[in-house]
Fold these 4 entries.
Entry 1:
Amino acid sequence: MRNALLIAVREFLDNTQTRGFWFGILLVPLLWLVASQVPLILARKGTPTRHVALIDTTAGERLFDVVLDQLKTAESRRELFHFREWAASRLKPGQALPAVDKQPQAWSRLQEDLGPLMKADAGQFAPPAPLNRLIALPAELQWRGDLSEFEGRLRDWMRAGRLFKPVGVDEEVPLFAVAILQDGLTSNAPPILRFWSVNQADTQLQDRLVDALSRNFRSREYSRLGMDSSSIARVEGSQAQLMSFNPRKAEGEEQVGVADLLRQWAPSAFVYLLWIAVFSISQMLLNSLIEERSNRILEVLLSSVTPLELMTGKLVGVAAVGAVMTLGWIGSLVLMTFWTLHTAGAAAMAADSIAHRLPLELATLLLDSWLLPAFVLYFLLGYLFYAAVILALGSTCNNLKEAQNFTGVIALLMMVPLVSITFIPKDPNGPVATVLSWIPPYTPFVMMNRVAANPPLREVIGTLVLLLLSDVAVLWGCARIFKTAVLRTGQPASLVQLARWVLGRD
Amino acid sequence: MLAALELRHVSKSFGRFHAVQDLSLSVPAGSVYGFLGPNGAGKTTSLRIILGMLSPDSGELSVLGSPSAMSVRNRVGYLPEEKGLYSKMTAASVIAYFATLKGLSSTRANQRARELLGRYGLGAFADKKVETLSKGMGQKVQVLASIAHDPELVLLDEPFSGLDPVNQEVLEEILVDLKARGCTILFSTHVMSHVERLCDRLIILGGGRGLFEGTVSEARSLLPIRITLETAEASPLLEILPGVRSMEAQSSNRWRLELEPGASASAVLESCFERSLRLRRFDVQDPDLHEVFVHLVGPSARETALR
């Protein structure tokens, strides 16, 4: 076994001493980081100010002010959010930010009030540029009372993508949208918003305007019908309180919280990791085997080691690579969670806020649950299954192109557990999950996904034993194929030939 | 002399194709043994059988006294026909890696790798990646990798192919050094001059069978000695010279003679003097190994080439 170990060490070093490997390890947490931070960064500074014009053609109640109020309120809330974030990161140690839920007359005044709580070098808060700025249309687009004639001019202007300098703006800007407010078709019908914009993907502004117009219309209707609109608004704003309980939890602790949600969905994240790990390291194994085969290094190796030693060494070496890779991912996930907490300003958060509790809950989950042991076990068993098949098939191919015919089929088969990631947690002990659990190539992924749902013990043990037996059978069969095929040249073997090799008839 | 390697009536078929048929050979310990044959003659299959990578269908073999090379693999070195190395490893580390697989400790393997690279002119490239070396250098590295563990038996499949004349000389030097310290060497080649210079014994394979086994001079004796003879004047007496099998007159006073097997050129020369022939030229041409090779495998090799 010394030789198998030497091969494993070389395989490990060969794969881990490449830039691509470390880039792959960094890529996953980097993607997580990007996915979690980009929306925040965009919310802070990403979106440029959009210039919007409003034309109110309504005859009855003028709706211009309604819409204007709505835009002002939204901007005010946004500034408040930015202020809270700015202030939280500049608090003195041990200080907490008092409730700031209303925009002050002047930010500098509020900053002065909070002065004793803030660090000396806090600086001055600068409100962000507005998201939407209401502007007057240029002379060519002045409203002349005829809707179709106006929209004709507007369409041509917007199609041309023209820039103009609105009053109060120092630079030339494009016209993001024009909102035309129209009376409803009947006197009691809600108003119509004709929203012209070349950007139809971002519906935030039009949704906001429709919401303001709808609320205003409902309020007016309540008054017209003799109902107290403010009472109705208050009632409409109320919502039933949800308290979710899980009877499987300990007595007195049945209420479901963040930790429970984390426990429920964490296995899915682990299944995803498991899938990426098994898939990517199987590819590494195939590449390494094909390199040795096409270079004829295999022939030299086989004059020094037995095929079984060679196969064992490669399996162990690449498994170690996979272990480092997944440890890197899990470690970086934990580090990132703590980093997010640190940068968000732990002191600024209430001790019982979700963000404050998340790293602790995550650490508790990883240390106190079956997740990590199950992950390690299913990683090893799943990896052995796929890696043995890859090695056996790879040993019959002369180059990567030939091997891709086989790996394409394996990749297709591996799509099933990937697709099942989202639906299994919704019915973890249902018939689909149960059936998939008993199919050995899928057992590691499906059972990992069911960990949180406490599947029946007989299923856990039964599927595990079946998977173990399948691994042994697959390793045995694949070793026989490997031994026969590894020095063979010429066309890749047919399925019949593979079967003959497994049965030892060639 | 004890045999380092012995094959007795070994056969191996792949389906209907008989790669090796009833092959027997004996390689004396400490000798250099040539393994000759045209493409497809069964050389590589025979080597794989010797190394235990393939099991023979029938026959027996003894490698350093063991029925299987796998049990004495640390005492055997092997260089395959198609050369390849791990392109991302350095020259020293790749030699050391293969040496550790043959039982050397990591420290000793590294020492040996640098020692060999230095001795054979590659010391400056010890820490260069294999992918940066020339083809010839890479091939030399692979030869060194096959002998770094001080094997008692070395099997080299076409070691000279792809090497320039200077590096061929270096490889010859390596083989001479190996022999000097008692190592048994078996190598296959298509270049007969290497066999003539280096080998104590040789085998010529054709169609999976052993067509000849013996020393280089025994191989040469398979073909008749040729003599070009020129006299000062035309002479009719030539036909009665002893041991001459055939005679071709190239001009009125110049002949090309072919002697009977076993006949000696000196007897012919003596007879010329006895007959008072006035010789202007007496040129003896021993058959070379190339001619013996073509004579033995020519028909079957052509068949294989045309298939």
Entry 2:
Amino acid sequence: MQTYDLQANSLRELNAALHAQTADTNQTAWEIVNPRGSHAIAVGLDAPIEVEVKGSTGYYCAGMNKQATVHVHGSAGPGVAENMMSGTVVIEGDASQYAGATGHGGLLVIKGNASSRCGISMKGIDIVVHGNVGHMSAFMAQSGNLVVCGDAGDALGDSIYEARLFVRGSVKSLGADCIEKEMRPEHLDILRDLLERAGSDAKPEEFKRYGSARQLYNFKVDNAY
Amino acid sequence: MCGIVGLFLKDKALEPQLGALLTDMLITMTDRGPDSAGIAIYGNEDRAASKLTVQAEDGDTAFDGLADRLGAAIDGEVSLSRNDTHAVLTVPAGKAEAARAALREIAPDVRIMSFGDTLEIYKEVGLPKDVADRFGLSSMSGTHGIGHTRMATESAVTTLGAHPFNTGSDQCLVHNGSLSNHNSLRRKLQREGIHIETQNDTEVGAAYLTWKMQNGATLGEALEASLDDLDGFFNFVVGTKDGFGVVRDPIACKPAVMAETDQYVAFGSEYRALVNLPGIENARVWEPEPATVYFWTHAEASNPNKKAA
């Protein structure tokens, strides 16, 4: 286990050390203490390593992540796991605005609530929020799955392209071109798998599915689910 | 981009540390706003006196004999305590409004930063650390305070463009964001007879609240109305004699974090600003909801939905 104290050492050194890890590294377990809300902790990782952050983080934690598992034992500031490509990011507390924005792949789990614009412009990432999400979540979402075990705020899925939105609680309002859709067996399977991987005991049958009415963008059949 | 910090103490034992805690929070927000900084601090009340904070480019000249001249103008005893480019004028209780009017006549080169019973406002251009040092902010005590670090986007980097803004007796406002309808609103408010000094957007936001309250609105109502009448992005943190309030525009793209313990309620643009507060590890930490007015007071009687005096 490599332990790194962000109060004693620089963020740049930490990220450089994490970037230096390769696919066959032996240093697979990292612990970051005293994050104190710093920005850009563990961004741009590209190795199968596990990073435990012991506290709350500021802007852009675990952005652009590939392969790595980043686990924040606290809350995360704006833009956590922004543009994630693969791997797993778990936030034990809450996440601020635009969590998982533009993410292409991987799994983002938020055990608390996510605020506004969660999954904005998501492009293939899977996001599971144990609590609620704020307004304009999944705005212009293109692909991937957003699972909300609590409630969704105003304008869910506004201007959505193709992405699956699953909400267990209430939806304050749906955004333009976002509608409720039928839950078919294949959707329940996707949901069951995501909930299990995200450590949620919610039942897939309790959720409703929302998606694109496909009236707002120039629909191409290749995009269809 | 700007940084806001605020601290409202519930535990009187922390009052001597208010300035030190706020200064630390303010300096942490330097990279959100390195061009100017300011602080509004609510000290302990002296029931026999009210006060004004004033600022002048050339304090040696402007403050010389000012207390005597002001005393003669308002027919009461006035004392002046200088603090760098600022000075606090102490006037008999209830004479702050009269002193404010008199100062515009007898000392037009002196800028009035604040007036009221307990509020003092200090602000200048420069790094937050340097601004805090020149005024000795860290040694100040009080019940609550608000600080701001500015990165100007809408108007010039000047002392008068720095925050906090005084919106009425013992009231102040700081802002993170940018108002897009400030020019038309400034013209409207000026037609209504409201005095606006600069091209700054936040000054218009402050003048708007003042105008609303002059026309009978409570602070809470004025803040609610701002959600309809102000266009643009804003996180506002306001201070009153007994309280501390927060409102965010409906889009809420400007960051805000709050923390509450038995000892205090704190606001920060980022969590970073809060990490050195006592007991933060066990505080309730949350993000204020968009388009929602939050308010905390020491006394129930002074909630924002009651009219000030």
Entry 3:
Amino acid sequence: MSVLAIVLPLALVLAAIAVRGCIWAIRSGQYDDTDTPPLRMLKDD
Amino acid sequence: MAAGALPCTHCGAPSPTSDAPGDRAFCCGGCEVAHAALSQLTCPVPAPVHVADDRPPPAEPSPLDDPTFLEEHASTDDAGITRIELAIRGMHCASCVWRVEALPERLGGVYEARVNFRRGRLQLAFDRGRVSLGEVARHLSRMGYDIGPVSASAAAARVAEDHAAMIRMAVAGACAGNAMLLAFALYAGLFDGMQPIYREAFRWGSLAVTGVALLWPGMVFFRGAWAGLRSGSVNLDGPIALALLAGGAWSAASTITGRGEVYFDSVSVLIFALLVGRFIQQRQQRWAADSVELLFSLTPRTARRVVGSAGDERVERVSVAAIETGDIVEVAPGESFPIDGEIVSGRTAVDASLLTGESLPRTCGVGDEVFAGAVNVSATVRCRVTASGADTRVARLMALVEDASGRKAPIVRFADRVGGCFLLAMIVLAAATFLLWLGHGVHVALERAVSLLVVTCPCALGLATPLAFTLAIGRAAGRGILIKGGDAVQHLAAGGTLFLDKTGTLTNGRMELVHWSGPVPLLALVAAAERESSHPVGLALAAAADKLPAAPTPEGVTHLPGEGVIAQTGSSRLAVGSERLARRLAHVMDPGLSAAAHAWAGEGLTPVYVVVDGDLRAVAGVGDQVREEAPSVIRSLERRGWACRILSGDDERAVAHVARACGVGEWRGGASPETKMAIIKEAAAKGNTVMVGDGVNDAGALAASHVGVSVHGGAEASLAAADVYLAKPGLHPLFTLVDGCERTLRMIRWTLAASSVYNVAAAAVAMSGHMHPIVAALVMPLSSLTAVSICVSSRFFRSEP
């Protein structure tokens, strides 16, 4: 049980961090345009 | 071969060869393949714009130069960088993205140019002290791209809405994933046994995760259900909210009291699946709106008005708002038409592809209609304004699309109606289950009832039905068929009475030479005499000789209104016109030719007599011909359970002829708009009615029918009244439409049947008390997955019958 007491909250905290990161990505506009960046990558400059 | 290595044709790096066949050398195989692929692209690649080209372009005032425009649409930060979002048109492929995004290298003062390819948006960061927006616009326009303003507040609201939906989805997804992981542990414990303390820990963990899912993303459903309840109508959110509430509350209670089953995983997966479905649906709807918005935002905001009398004409640039109906406006090649109008001088090719879906530019001459938003391709023309601003076709279309997206009701109403029944069924079944198991104690009875509520949640229904309609409408739009709402799809799939207008719908909508009896060279002469004519019959005759060698233009052409034309060609006198004119001028009427003319008149054609020096030498039959595909399309529609009828304002005889040619048994000619509307209303009271028409006088009939279909080239009034607009000419789209709607409905019935089977089976199991949480966890995602995959994999609209 002692293991669980650490691991279970830890898993949930990790999940929360991941969600937090995803929300940051969405809010900063990372998903606003999913079509153009793949084309931009091909540009040779 | 001692010469230096040639640069690679594709990338410019040194190539291993110094001897290149056809002046092409490549550094590697990759460049060779890429070059070959790129050179085959249909995308127009105009000559690259070099830095040396950057002399200031001729200063022409642009609305984008207006300082108030920047105040309204742009934002400037402390570093003096102005940022603005603009609509951009003319993007074809990846290389267009590169060329536009290379703008900072070509134009001083521009710091950044970012393109959103799919939505046709350009984000620009520039120094307004060093470069004006007008210069940017002119620079881009030389490269072949047009930019225009977009509403900043609407764009921001949309982005915020998108972000909120995505965040909800992300949170729900994370919660669902973790709830499922914890559920696996619990299920494993069910089979192998597990210490109560572990079980408790996992349950509490699941409660925390699912609580977040319910209280944050899941709130959408509770709010929706609550709004529905308050307005007295149950929507699909109702049963979903009930299932979530019952499952969530029961599981929470079980966790706290330590007895009973938990459904945390089912509840959180349900929230996630439904949110994903809604997101896809919303994207599809937005897409159609985007393309119209793009067109609208690129419609010029200023126009060049021609003022002053003939001989002393001036052209002044005014805002579109100042343009009035009847004004004359000049449009240069490369510009978009700022208004709807009629060409009064000049001849040009007009590209209306964004407006009509026609891919090729159409040649337009004097008298032809042009629409705001279409691009003037080849020459300067002047047009008389028939509509400007909010009255233009594109503005109406825009309003229509906005209206349609605001009017989600038909789609939702359909699912909601079922949703209401569903809610009732769920409550009745749950109550029955509760009573059935009451003998075993309140706890057991309650548990059975809750498990029933959870498994019968109309996940598939809530997901699949709106998704199917949205996908169908989206795919129809891709084929040039604009459908305003899901109810139209439903009606069009049902069969019933189909009324067709004659002119422009079953026929080509313009006069053509159908029969000619007489010497062919004479036809060329007749055409030459009619060249200046403005009468439809005259125009048809003039157009008929297009393929013949041109005849000398006759002298002294006299137009006799209502009778015809008299002209002097060489030594002989030519008269072209009605029977009355011929009887007056001809000494003898050739009986054979007269008989032919009378026979054609019986077919609904207009007979034209040609008299040369007092002799009747030829007769012509001019009329509006039935579309080639009309009979076959009508036959296929009738096979699908539609009773086709013709309803026309035209003369009874002409209608009868068209009806015979198309194989339509019932027709009505000479009907005034009021009569048409009355007939439709009467038919609509009896059963499903569809009206297909184009003219202004059809608007009432289109609105009175269950589904009004406005055909290509239809007037604005019919566009607003119709539920469906066919952007492609001909009758084939009508068949595609009916066929596609039938497929959609068939598919929806399939998914409904499939999900009903799941639900009935699950309900039976739950009522019998055998609903294990594992079974619930399996059945729920399976039913939604089946429904969605049937939906996404079906092909709703095929291009050809």
Entry 4:
Amino acid sequence: MDIPKDKLLWIYERMQLIRVFETRVSTEFGRGKIPGFVHLYAGEEAVAVGICANLTDADYMTSTHRGHGHCVAKGVDVRGMMAELFGKATGICKGKGGSMHIADMDKGMLGANGIVGGGPPLACGSGLTAKTNGTDQVTICFFGDGASEQGTLHESLNLAAIWKLPIIFVAENNGYAESTPAHYHCSVENIADRAAAYNMPGVTIDGNDLFAVYESAHEAVARARAGQGPSLLECKTYRHHGHFEGDAQTYKIAEENEKYRTELDPIKRFKEAVRPRGLVSEDELAEIDERVQAAVDAAVKFAEDSPFPEVQETFTDVYVSY
Amino acid sequence: MSSVGIIANPRAGKDIRRLVAHGSILDTQEKVYIVRRAILGIQGAGADEVVLFPDPANIFTKALSGIENELRISPRFLEMSIFDEASDSTRAAQLMREQGVACVIVIGGDGTNRVVTKGSGSMPLVPLSTGTNNAFPQFLESTLAGLAAGYYAARQFSPETCSRPTKRLNLYRNGTLEDIALVDAAVCDYQFVGARAVWEAERLKELFLTQGQPTNIGLASIGGSLHPIRPADDAGLYVRLGGNTRSINAPIAPGMVVSVPVQHHGLMELGTRLPVTFTPSIIALDGERELVVNADDRWEVELSWDGPRVLDIEKVMDAARPATA
Amino acid sequence: MAERELNFGEALNEAMRQEMQRDPKVILMGEDVAGGADIDHLEGDEAWGGVLGVTKGLVQEFGRARVIDTPISESGFIGAAVGAAATGLRPIAEMMFVGFMGVCFDQLLNQGAKLRYMFGGKAKVPLVIRTICGGGYRAAAQHSQVLHSLFTHIPGLKTVVPSTPYDAKGLLISAIRDDDLVIFFEDITFGGIKGAVPEEDYTIPFGKADIKRAGDDVTVVAIGKMVHHSLAAATELEKQGKSAEVIDPRTLSPFDEETVLTSVEKTGRLVIADESHPRCNVATDIAAMVADKGFDYLNAPIKMVTAPHTPVPFSPPLEDHYLPNPQKISAAALGLF
């Protein structure tokens, strides 16, 4: 599988944009600028970007409470995202959704989701729409290891299989459902093993290896577009931050945490893979780093400068009965 | 104290060939059953101890927890740290050898045996096939593998009579031994290691084989279709792929029978280093993309009889049979 | 020429048929809505067409790509209906009994009802969920509930409770054309109700109550099956010299406050009949609204006739005791004089 240079650069930019965005969100949250809960995606960049590098804006995606990375990978504007996190009127959802409900229908991004396991049934819906309309749009259904124990996921795997829906179920197994380890909460070692029970291919991937994710997603997406039905990709990964910002992460193992932040870091591994082959130059990577930093700085400034919504906005976008 | 070791690869049977070919998902639970039967086989042969690999998927813990009531043999887990990577299996094999384990049952494919071999030294292997493309291990019910391994350990059969040597490929980078393969080394036109497996015939540029039989699946099947080389033969095979003059039909992955263009093939002699000519490239070892070949590196491949010794099941079972009056 | 009469289920069937003919984006999904998927020996209209046969014949006309049998996976298929609606289809999902909503509540409460709002208006969920409700069928506690109050409470959902075949057809067509998630309640005892139904398609606007019987002395607001009980009670009250006005709100969210207030202004007395449990229901809600906005019109306390705060019992004498009936309604009304 070869990846053209412009795509490699896009991939690096998106991974770096997620990392810098999330790191900045952590800072801004610490400064009290971001209300509510935030769940950060840093450390898992290769999954979202490796998958989304195979999509177009017309393809759909359902997401999770840890959804910022999915949004960035799907091309959602980071200014609108940051403003949304700040609760501002210029937010992508007018400040009415917040971190856990960022959505962008124009990008096929059907929403982060505050309910663990909330997304898979919705993914069956967008899959059904594509199938009914006879388009080649695919739906990516991201879910975590925690959601793999929700009945909704199992119902959805079955629905997608019997209706042969164009869905790629992507298990982001980061080892912990909140503070509970997967080896306790999950009856099987590999979530993808369960694919066999639903008559679909299941693949377990090193989710911190962009190229492994990209290649597997490429094949699964091609399969779905060709009408051959759903598949289940399990990406083993790790989150650099806690379940939420403020989580002391006492349940993590120090050596494991360190190893994933250094040796196994997906961005570092990407650079190590492209450098020796001369596929991308240092200058090109540095230029992207600068651009990403500027984009995130601009997003924060935009969010800070934007007004909060008028209180009347409470009453729009819903039928108000009383 | 007679000991048999077992190493199982928790990652075998889960790669991209479930998507691009028609590989079965070998779920961890199936490996648990295989291990259980192997342990009971070893116990049935009268060995004292079974030494287990503390794998990250807890295959062995789960296997033991289902046979508590019938277990008489002593199970012992190796004391080692686990990093959930291939080198775990290498270190496990090394520890087993150092601790005097008689032989080790390896549950996995060609790739698993390759990493075990790096640590097993003279300790014979009992390779059981569970991986997706396998030429090195054999399909054998694990009870039987356990029984044979147990007899070999308990009755102290001679390695010379009850096991056989195997070949291997030695890969040199700029003159230094860098890695090995038990069955095949494939030079491929890929940018990255990526999803590891190799299933696109058009990506194959050069192939080095220790064996290639008409009954093999995977890259060794190319040898099987061109010029069969048996595990006992004093030769290997070199194949240069591509071109449009000649092609052969080969099952290079489960359910994938493809036309493979072949430019040239020839025997590999023992001890002769052949250069890798297609660079930059990725070299797949025993079916998995592994080595990144840069344009300015000089890579060579050599065939030798330095592969692991493999237990000869039939000879062990023959030796174990009571002499008739 | 006499007006054509249809029973309740036939009116619903015709509404769905006409909307599916009009708009290819309308699909139907649910357990056994076609019936017998993958069973080759079925011929003609042998397939179920829903557990009560309400969707019978639609699969023959529209095919299995648009009339989709689902597995018994309520979270899965209701969520899929929400997702399909958010991405451009206009599904009608059938939830066999309203009690089963418990199985898929997240997909309604946290997904379907909230997407439009959470996404700042950039998504809409044009989905109708049809569901059987109500007691009187000896179906016991899990299959006899009304629960419209529960859904009326939730912003983002609209709730529709028709009481006649005419209303059923017009309201269902409106529901299908509405861009919000509508829960459409069909009382299990309405199978035998017949009434005049125009052949052409027509809509009945949401939030527009219907005065089923005009009267001067007491206003009876009645929901679903209670409309028929209230009409029977009104006949009894007439004999006692009291003229009752029976109002059917038809939709609970939106709710037509004006028609109720205007009536109470005229009669000065209000009885509300609701098969819900007695607390936090639509009856208490209407009572609160009238106490707030029509206090000066009232000449007597507001009376509510509801089911008790118990699950629906199975045994016939118990269920009969549980359910509101014309006698309870007329007694409540007479108590106001």
